[in-house]
Amino acid sequence: MAKGKRPTLKFNSSGFVQLYKSELIKTTNEIMKSFEKDVKMRLNKAKNDIEREESIEIGKNIISAKVTAYAQAIMESYGTGSKMDTSNPFLDDYRGSDLWNPARKGIAISGRPKGKYINILGEEKISSGSMEGKNLEQIGPLFQPKTPTMAIQQAEEWLKSNTGYFEYELNLFRQKVFSNINQFFIYN
Questions:
Q1: Is 39 in contact with 50 (CB distance < 8 Å)?
Q2: What is the dihedral of CA 50, 149, 46, 141, to 10 degrees?
Q3: Which residues of the chain have pLDDT under 50?
């Protein structure tokens, strides 16, 4: 065997990881854009109460992106009063907060105690207390419960399903990253 340099095969792992992360961030953004669009498409009035944040890398191994639904969107999606979807994952937090009417014993919309309070939209209001604890849904159209549109819930189900946009975007991600993997092998 002749003396000299033997050829070696090396893998540029740092370059591959950089491409992998970059494409994963793009994929995460596309998934969340689709999710946001799906929720907005299903909402009637609260389309502007949804906000998406671009993906960011947190630490070494976590990429995060989020879509935030604010009060109007949550109320439209999960309903209000006696018609609300009680499987709402935010309901227990709401019930345990200062925003929940302490005179409200069930889920029907009811009158508040006398005094100032902050409503679910963050607005300061004043109650006379004359209807404290009474079911306001029976009074008139102003306090009618709203049937859920299920906009957020249906978009989440589609996101989680393997037939939705999550799976589609992950397949594109795999193609982009692994179809170019040969560029990271160096033979010399």
A1: yes
A2: -150
A3: 1
Is-contact 110 135, C-beta < 8 A? yes
> Is 140 exposed, middle or buried, given 0-12, 13-18 or 19+ CB atoms closer than 10 A?
exposed
- If you search the block for the tokens 């929940």, which residue do you land on? 100
The first and second tokens of residue 50, run together, are 């949804």
Q: Give the model's pLDDT for residue 62.
A: 86
Instruction: Look up residue 152 and give its amino acid.
Output: I
Burial class of 13 by CB neighbour count within 10 A (0 to 12, 13 to 18, 19+): exposed
Element (H, E) at 13: helix 13-42
pLDDT of residue 2: 56
Residue 3's pLDDT is what? 67
CA 127 remoteness from chain centre: 33
Please name the helix (run of DSSP H) or strand (run of DSSP E) that holds residue 160, with its range, or none: helix 151-160
Tokens of 133: 């604890």
